[in-house]
Amino acid sequence: MSYSFDVTEPDFDAAVVARSHEVPVLVDFWAPWCGPCRTLKPMLEKLADEYGGRFELAKLNSDEAQDVSARYAVRSIPAVKLFVGGQVVDEFTGALPEGQVRAFLEAHLPDEAEELRRTAADIADPLQRAEMLRQAEQLSGGRLEIVLDLCAALLDANLVDYAAAGLDSVELRQRDENWLKLKARLDLAQGAGEVDEAALCERIAADPQDFEARLALAGALAQKNAWPEAFDALLEVVLRDKAEARATARARLVEWFSLCPDMRAVMNARRQLSMYLN
User: Fold this and answer.
1) Model confidence over 114-139: pLDDT tens digits?
2) Nearest Cα to Cα of residue 259 among 158, 206, 189
3) Which residues are catalytic?
4) What top-level class would CATH report for the domain 4-106?
5) Annotation: CATH topology of 112-190
């Protein structure tokens, strides 16, 4: 299988820009009259085959693609530009030695661990996804993004203790927003248990100021992904209390907003929270 192909101006956006959302695309801007181009092109073709699909090589005759060449500011050739996610992420001009071209590619191309991570993202079964991510983690030496993906898969599989261990293994300086979001999911999962929602509702009906019951009910609802109802339970605490329970409910709302996939529910709850606090 060849990983290099000729591209023309009419199909550039589809063959290069769109395609680069799926795999990195290296574009070689060349022309028939260009001596260095004749040296560089076969070397790039050899590397494309050798890398076995980690990138694809698109060869564009710049004389026949002047609009595209102008769009990407090609002033001299050979000009080589690497597209990832629809954008040029790096480039070089001239016929560089093979070693320098390899270094250029290695700086941007996904390694085996990253390839496993991307493959795992398409696996629906969380246990299978976690197993592939564990392999990727080992290959990468514990790369942060892969560790976090693994923890998410473990949470999806309800392997809470393993997810907790994974999150604890992340150094303090590396604990970014993605880590905090997973920690919020973990805290929610660790708080799950056999909750008698009917009993909690009875307690609330008997005493609307039973904030402990309202907070527990909110947790049970969130565990079922009943986010609008969970938000409502917390908002009632914010509305009715002026002390510790209100602070707890407010903090939990802010934490759970990042977990809820229903943006309309989040926006509604944010609006009510702002109204109750002002």
Assistant:
1) 889 889 999 999 999 999 999 999 98
2) 189
3) 34, 37
4) alpha beta
5) 1.25.40
